[in-house]
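queue> holo job accepted (zinc ion)
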Amino acid sequence: MSKYLTLGKFSFGMGDRFGHQGNAQLQACVLATKLGAEFIPVWNKSNREHTFIGTEPSSLRAEADAAVKALGWKKPYHVDADHIRLETVDRFIAPSDFFTIDVADSIAKPAAAADVKAFVDRHPELVGKISIPHIDRPFEITRVEVGRVADKFLLAVQDAGKIYQHIVATKGAANFITEVSVDETDSPQTPPELLIILAAIADQKIPIQTIAPKFTGRFNKGVDYVGDVKQFEKEFNDDLAVIAFAIKKYGLPPSLKLSVHSGSDKFSIYEPMRRALKKFGAGVHIKTAGTTWLEELIGLAEAGGDGLEIAKEIYAYAIEHVDEFCAPYASVIDIDKKKLPPASVVNGWSSKQFTDALRHDQKNPAFNPSFRQLLHVSFKVAAKKGGRYLNALKKHEAIIAKNVTENLFERHMKPLLLGK
Ligand SMILES: [Zn+2]
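queue> job finished
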């Protein structure tokens, strides 16, 4: 493996669509670190988000640097070019030091038959009975199965290798962290598939430090996990075992860990994750994004007056365009349209009614997950408001910052590392 920039054991990915919450987000890491739960902050923004908002990747670097300076943060921090591909990576190379290479589009496109055969020939250790510490039953993988998995993933991993080398050529291998993401695909990867994928990644000599598989269950935007928590826990444990095994077997970086692209707020799996991480002494990268944008809206609504007004306007526009806004997110939202209050009703709400419906407090009977998911995917409406929205963020900075920090610290970092 070539040199690489090392990522800390626990790291927290934070998205900030409008670029105003860097300080408030970093403050959550400061609070967690004080309690002994050190999270290395990573600011992530995808090409799609930049395009929707009209920002350049350099703005995220500027925001991260400014927050670190303002809070006197002395530990590492990173800027993640999230879900980049060969055709989108270039403008991210200078300002980013963390690259999430997304090769989901190449999954299931067959690699060259000769390459698949060469891969299977090169890896006789993947065939047969494979005993992995902490996995109850050894994997039984046939040669045909290795071939099938290679057929499905080898081209994707080869593409990841190309993108990695492309970044190395301009940036130098020692100056960045590499994540490979295969989460934005149809079916979850099983632990044996993960092992085969890691073998292929090692062949490409990618010093991968985080891998984002697709896990079982639904990871809807901004709401809790939907699925079989027990099954998730088993797979998560098995994935940790596979990673520890692959690090040794294939000489992958010892800092290699799972990256959970959470879609934000998967509270019910935090405790099983915490248990598993403790058991394995493993680290994790948690990626969130939209949860901060929702806290902005909550802060605005809580401020009342013009803040509440702008929050209501955003909802009114969103519900009018509900089909249009939801279509691109069909696989990551579950909105019950009958549960969406009409704009005329919401327009009469108090600050408390609005924040009760939106804030992710499942114990609050007024919490409305459909309302929350719709607003999650409606940040384009705020982007359209341009200066007016940004001015409202400035005007109500204090109350928004309080919500942003509290959300990341209390609802995410604490349960993940310290338990409730
Ligand atoms: Zn993702």
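queue> Residues 83, 181, 183-184, 212, 261 surround zinc ion (CB under 6 Å).
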